[in-house]
Design a protein that fits this description.
By secondary structure, the chain is of the alpha+beta class. It has one domain. The protein is built from one helix and four strands, in the order βββαβ. A four-stranded mixed beta sheet has the order 3-2-1-4, covered by helices on one side. The N and C termini lie far apart (45 Å).
């Protein structure tokens, strides 16, 4: 049995609350022979594409950083 492909996406970080721009950013595609011509897509568009090619949608969790958070840099 062939494994279904996966389309990985996440919510965009720099988008306003009532903006009418696509809210999701395409991150990666695995196991599906497909070419995307846009980086930013609407959820419904992602769902329709995934259904048409038999892929699963995977929403990646975005960790928001605090402005006061210290970041350790290793050399």
């Amino acid at each position: 049995m062939k494994m279904a492909g996966k389309i990985f996406y996440r919510e965009r970080l720099k988008i306003g609350v009532k903006e009418k721009k696509p809210r999701f950013k395409l991150v990666a595609v695995a196991g599906v022979d497909i070419t995307f011509y846009g980086d930013h897509l609407r959820k419904r568009e992602l769902e329709e594409i995934a259904e048409a090619v038999g892929a699963d949608l995977v929403l990646l969790k975005v960790q928001k950083k605090d402005k006061d958070e210290e970041v350790e840099v290793k050399d």
